[in-house]
Design a protein that fits this description.
It is a single chain. The chain is α/β, with parallel strands linked by helices. It has helices at about 50-65, 105-115, 135-140, 145-155, 170-195, 265-270, 290-300; strands at about 40-45, 65-75, 90-95, 100, 125-130, 160-165, 210-215, 225-230, 240-245, 250-255, 275-280. The protein is built from seven helices and eleven strands. The strands form two sheets. Strands 3-4-2-1-5-6-7-11-8 form a nine-stranded mixed β-sheet. The protein has a two-stranded antiparallel sheet with strand order 9-10.
């Protein structure tokens, strides 16, 4: 599973509850500019096509006037990251109108959706989520929710990953409640992207957004303290702990080992009850300084 490089914040600055931002870049090769009517949205996730988060997202985005089609895993695929196309066949079910269930990963689901369900014309946007629990810091690297968005970006389709939760273990009841505020914000964000895009692409070419909405209030229905343009905090705060059982097997537990949050990162934002919006892309490219380092390293080297 590979790491998604977070783009510089200047690539897309969304820095207040009003969501002020910069103009997008050139159009994606796979998508036409959004029409004046509702957006055509492919909705996926990693919790499964019938999970509460994706069903609530379908209802809320449809109520906002968008044309939404679910193409999501048949079963829970949390933690599968960007894994896809690891089997020669896929079982796909079509249990109801506007719903496709793919027996594979979020990436498999998006690939099938783009190739078959949206074969005639790519969707205007892929939304992945909303997910149970956060996908911040190192969690984002291994997240199936983020992986579904990455699969869309690899095909040139704008994408948003949506997650609901702070940096502690999510309580199912309060998380489900908090999915309402998450999706209310998602609708506002999509409206803002669309208003800025006018007749152009929703996002700059190759850029997606990883959105993490905190759980606010005892019942999860509180209002976030604000919105922050963030980057993926470099720490991985879930640490595996292995215990030898003495019979050739090892017990595995996971410990939470939070280090101080990086200033301006996603952990800092959600810990302060702010919504973290992190630009991301689907490739492994780094910045000019890293290219300069590589050039210096190979100077004088010969095969």
């Amino acid at each position: 599973m590979r790491r998604k490089r977070v783009l510089p914040l200047a690539a897309l600055m969304l820095c207040t509850p009003a969501l002020a931002g910069t103009a997008p870049a050139a159009a994606s090769p796979r998508t036409a500019p959004p029409a004046a009517g509702p957006l055509r949205i492919l909705l996926t996730n990693d919790d499964g096509y019938n999970a509460p988060g994706i069903r609530k997202a379908f209802e809320r985005l449809t109520a906002a006037g968008h044309d939404v089609t679910i193409v999501a895993p048949l079963t829970n695929q949390s933690g599968t990251g960007t894994k896809m196309m690891s089997a020669p066949t896929l079982t796909v079910k079509h249990p109801e109108p506007k719903v496709w269930a793919v027996d594979g990963t979020p990436g498999d689901s998006v690939a099938f959706g783009l190739a078959e369900v949206f074969a005639d014309e790519a969707p205007d946007l892929v939304v992945s989520g909303t997910n149970f629990g956060p996908n911040v810091a190192g969690l984002a690297t291994h997240s199936g929710t983020v992986g579904g968005a990455v699969a869309a970006l690899e095909s040139g389709v704008p994408a948003i990953a949506l997650s609901t939760g702070g940096v502690t273990a999510p309580d199912p009841v309060t998380t489900v409640n908090a999915m309402g505020p998450t999706l209310d914000f998602a609708v506002k964000l999509i409206d803002r992207l669309r208003a800025r895009a006018r007749s152009g692409p929703l996002l700059p070419k190759g850029v997606g957004l990883n959105v993490n909405h905190p759980v606010v209030g005892a019942d999860g229905t509180g209002t976030a303290a604000g919105v922050a343009a963030t980057f993926q905090d470099p720490q991985n705060f879930l640490q595996p702990d292995f215990t030898d059982s003495g019979d050739g097997t090892w017990k595995v537990t996971v410990k939470v080992a939070l280090r101080p949050a990086a200033k301006g990162g996603d952990i800092e934002a959600v810990s302060a009850d702010r919504i973290a919006v992190s630009p991301m892309n689907a490739d492994w490219n780094t910045g000019p300084a890293d290219h300069a380092l590589a050039s210096a390293l190979i100077t004088g080297l010969r095969p």
